[in-house]
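Need a sequence for this fold. Nothing fancy.
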């Protein structure tokens, strides 16, 4: 991959639920995606950010629905992606979602000449077909393991994060569990976490005994166990297993 993203997902906001399901499965296959709900941040200039995403992606996924074909904003994305397809040989994946060939021909005849996916297939099968193209048919693909992700490692109690900036103070999971209430929710691993969720992560780190977990003193360990118990996760209770809480 020569660009930051494998795939730009172009979709109408009315189809966001289905687009989100697609993005989740695509990430499971290790595909790096530009998807507005994940890639846009408050304060971003919308057009600039989308243009950057269009340029920074090697492939384009077009979620073509009746709504998509009638909206001005999706028309803009489609025009850019189609031009990139023609001029730069950018590979496009049209995905027909509640539309047929006659509707595509009427809206954009050029798209009907590109072999399309159809949402009548399972999401898993659709994403597998896309992955096969992106990974050039290789039967074995090197996918970055979750334990290499510092955000994932933090939630396992195995690493640290910086607070708010790259030069912010470092903190680990056990320290975060004792943050003041004003510090929550804590944004980590792509979503906000409540104190209870952070404490549950602490309970899992203590319960499962991962050898990579950051060492803590007995005093802090006892404090963590009391905090877990106060949140309903009693590590000393008979039959307790944090897995039942998700």
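Here you go.
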């Amino acid at each position: 991959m020569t660009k930051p993203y494998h795939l730009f997902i172009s979709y109408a906001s009315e189809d966001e639920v289905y687009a989100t399901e697609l993005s989740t499965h695509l990430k499971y296959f290790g595909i790096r995606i530009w998807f507005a709900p994940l890639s846009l941040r408050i304060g971003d200039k919308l057009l600039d950010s989308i243009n950057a995403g269009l340029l920074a992606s090697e492939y384009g996924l077009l979620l073509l629905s009746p709504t998509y074909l009638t909206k001005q904003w999706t028309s803009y994305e489609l025009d850019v992606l189609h031009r990139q397809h023609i001029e730069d040989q950018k590979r496009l994946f049209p995905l027909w979602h509640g539309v047929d060939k006659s509707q595509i021909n009427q809206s954009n005849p050029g798209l009907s000449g590109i072999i399309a996916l159809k949402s009548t297939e399972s999401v898993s099968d659709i994403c597998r077909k896309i992955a096969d193209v992106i990974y050039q048919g290789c039967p074995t693909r090197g996918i970055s393991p979750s334990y290499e992700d510092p955000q994932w490692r933090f939630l396992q109690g195995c690493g640290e994060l910086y607070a708010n900036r790259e030069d912010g103070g470092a903190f680990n999971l056990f320290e975060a569990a004792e943050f003041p209430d004003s510090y929550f929710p804590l944004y980590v691993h792509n979503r906000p976490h409540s104190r209870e969720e952070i404490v549950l992560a602490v309970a899992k780190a203590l319960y499962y005994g991962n050898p990579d977990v950051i060492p803590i003193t007995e005093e802090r360990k006892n404090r963590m166990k009391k905090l877990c118990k106060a949140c309903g996760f009693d590590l000393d209770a008979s039959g307790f297993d944090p897995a039942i809480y998700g």
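For context: The CA atoms of residues 131 and 137 lie 8 Å apart.
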